[in-house]
Amino acid sequence: MLEKLADIRREYSRGGLDRDDLNPDPILQFESWLKDIIAVGIPDPTAMTVATVDPQGQPSQRIVLLKDVSEAGFVFYTNLGSRKAQELKTNGKISLHFPWHLIERQVKVCGTVEPLSKLQVSKYFLTRPRESQLAAWASQQSRPISTRQMLMSQFHQAREKFAKGEIPLPDFWGGYRVIPHEIEFWQGGEHRLHDRFVYRRQSGQDWQIERLMP
């Protein structure tokens, strides 16, 4: 079966993307596409790949969930001791990727991060399911652990500790806003002649739109 990997392919034929189809504002364009993928009903429509780079120049990727998008940028939350948070501490450049292959679309975002305020993080943390709040306390994200049983033990300890009342925001848990300077929209096309348009931020809030070869 693995010998046939090179033969796995399909044609992209759901439709093209023209310059006239695009909103002048890439955030509004993104929101329009996000609504389309949510309407399809696929699991985790807000899942995105987050790419960061360590001090040695080694890129690293992982999937997280987009929790807000506005003209200010794209928001996600994480443990501040995680690998991504540690890498963002020394290099604030970041890239996001939304792989919406079911509707033959992709979006790539390049930008820099700014930490969210404690108030913003706390407001979101309180909306999480209680079990997810407990999991945040139980896991030292990206740290080695010997067994799953040990992780579950830490989870149960957190459950006992916070058995009554609200679960407080851990001081090691936070969030980031990605401020984009480049956003690319990709629409699959027949014969691998895909349609790609990139928005690049100019001075102020203006964006320049350019078509790219596939």
TrEMBL record:
Q: Which residues bind FMN?
A: 62-67, 77-78, 83-84, 106, 141-142, 186, 196
Question: What InterPro entries does the record point to?
Answer: Pyridox_Oxase (IPR000659), Pyridox_Oxase_CS (IPR019740), Pyridox_Oxase_N (IPR011576), Pyridoxamine_oxidase_dimer_C (IPR019576), Split_barrel_FMN-bd (IPR012349)
Q: What class of enzyme is it?
A: oxidoreductase
Q: How is the cofactor bound?
A: Binds 1 FMN per subunit.
Q: Which residues form the Pyridoxamine 5'-phosphate oxidase N-terminal domain?
A: 41-160
Q: Which residues form the Pyridoxine 5'-phosphate oxidase dimerisation C-terminal domain?
A: 173-214
Pathway terms, separated by semicolons: Cofactor metabolism; pyridoxal 5'-phosphate salvage; pyridoxal 5'-phosphate from pyridoxine 5'-phosphate: step 1/1; Cofactor metabolism; pyridoxal 5'-phosphate salvage; pyridoxal 5'-phosphate from pyridoxamine 5'-phosphate: step 1/1
What reaction gets catalysed by this protein? pyridoxine 5'-phosphate + O2 = pyridoxal 5'-phosphate + H2O2; pyridoxamine 5'-phosphate + O2 + H2O = pyridoxal 5'-phosphate + H2O2 + NH4(+)
**EC number(s) given by UniProt:** 1.4.3.5
Extract one GO molecular function annotation from the record.
pyridoxamine phosphate oxidase activity
| One example of a Gene Ontology biological process annotation | pyridoxine biosynthetic process
Cofactor section: FMN
Q: What's in the keyword line of the UniProt record?
A: Flavoprotein, FMN, Oxidoreductase, Pyridoxine biosynthesis
Binding, substrate: R9, R10, E11, Y12, K67, Y124, R128, S132, R192, L193, H194
Function per UniProt: Catalyzes the oxidation of either pyridoxine 5'-phosphate (PNP) or pyridoxamine 5'-phosphate (PMP) into pyridoxal 5'-phosphate (PLP).
Indicate the family of this protein: Belongs to the pyridoxamine 5'-phosphate oxidase family.
Q: Which HAMAP family match?
A: PdxH (MF_01629)
Subunit structure of this chain's protein: Homodimer.
How is this protein named in the record?
Answer: Pyridoxine/pyridoxamine 5'-phosphate oxidase
* Gene coding for it: pdxH
